[in-house]
Amino acid sequence: MNCPFCSSADTRVVNSRPSDEGSAIRRRRECSVCSRRFTTYERAQFEALMVVKRSGRREAFNPDKLLQKLRIACNKRPITEKQLREFAYTFEDAVQLPEVQAEEIGVQALKFLKSIDDVAYIRFLSVYRDFDSVDRFIEEIKQLGDAP
Ligand SMILES: [Zn+2]
């Protein structure tokens, strides 16, 4: 931790105590070069992908929930569990955003299924609860029909 005043890397902790009811550690540091004191807070950073529901409510992305929906759509289809897991468990990294609209997860899952199995794709459209627009549903099926 460099000194904010002189940028020296030579600082030491003079005092350390929990803060915010234990969710953070407050540290009082002193710079060995300029002797000024400063405070740092150490707290856990939650980097989980957040899903924004249509209601505006946010919840942490759960790959198992996505995987469950994919499994239902792919039941008895020539798609392996490994393919589904690969998609669900790399989704968070693939998105590279702090949050995503719930519908966008559905759209990405549909693209993924469309590339491997049409039946699973149509099934997913019908089971994906967050995908509530009938117009969008029809539009997707039309697009599928137009595909070469
Ligand atoms: Zn300093």
TrEMBL record:
Negatively regulates transcription of bacterial ribonucleotide reductase nrd genes and operons by binding to NrdR-boxes. Keywords: ATP-binding, DNA-binding, Metal-binding, Nucleotide-binding, Repressor, Transcription, Transcription regulation, Zinc, Zinc-finger. Residues 49-136 form the ATP-cone domain. The gene is nrdR. HAMAP family: NrdR. Residues 1-21 are annotated as: Disordered. GO terms for biological process: negative regulation of DNA-templated transcription. This is Transcriptional repressor NrdR. Residues 8-17 have a biased composition (Polar residues). PROSITE patterns: ATP_CONE (PS51161). Belongs to the NrdR family. NCBIfam families: transcriptional regulator NrdR. One of its GO terms (molecular function) is ATP binding. Its cofactor is Zn(2+). Binds 1 zinc ion. A zinc finger (unnamed) spans 3-34.
